[in-house]
Amino acid sequence: MTRSEFDDIRAYIAAEATRAGDLVEVARTLLDDLEHARMREATLRAYYLRLLTAARATVAAEAAGAPEPLTFLKDELAKRGQMPEGKQVNQILSDARTAEALVAALEQQPMRTLAPTGRGRRCAGVSRTLPR
Predict the structure, then answer these.
(1) What top-level branch of life does the organism fall under (predicted)?
(2) HSE (side-chain half, CA atoms, 13 Å) at 28
């Protein structure tokens, strides 16, 4: 969900005319979104683990003197439809050089952080105090 969607939900919950049934529906929607995000995260973690395993096996195969050390990595990329072809080759190499330069620049000049203002963090959405 986007930040504006969260702000919309906060405003909706804070509205005086909100009924309990409406809040239950919002809660269900949020739970569905959370479950979807967890599934996406699990899928991405699995893809990452497979790619990392293939990369490590490729380096190990090269160190062991295997005749085709790139086999593991090529196989994993092919399974995901990520094998570079034709004009993509030069674009991928250019992107890699650019990314390498950006990372090097970031490492030389770390990002500045804002000094604490003394105030606590607060939500930028609609605010409302609860009765005591």
Answers:
(1) Bacteria
(2) 6
User: In 15-87, which ranges are continuous DSSP H helix?
Assistant: 20-63, 71-79
Segment holding 92, helix H or strand E:
helix 88-108
How far, in Å, CA of 76 to CA of 53, rounded?
9
Please give the chain's pLDDT, 132 residues, in tens.
677 877 777 777 777 666 777 777 878 888 888 899 999 999 999 999 999 999 999 999 999 999 999 999 999 999 999 999 999 999 999 999 999 999 998 888 866 766 655 554 444 545 544 444
Q: Does residue 125 lie in a domain region?
A: no
The tokens describing 67, both together, are 């005749």
Range of the domain at 90: 3-108
- Total domains, the chain: 1
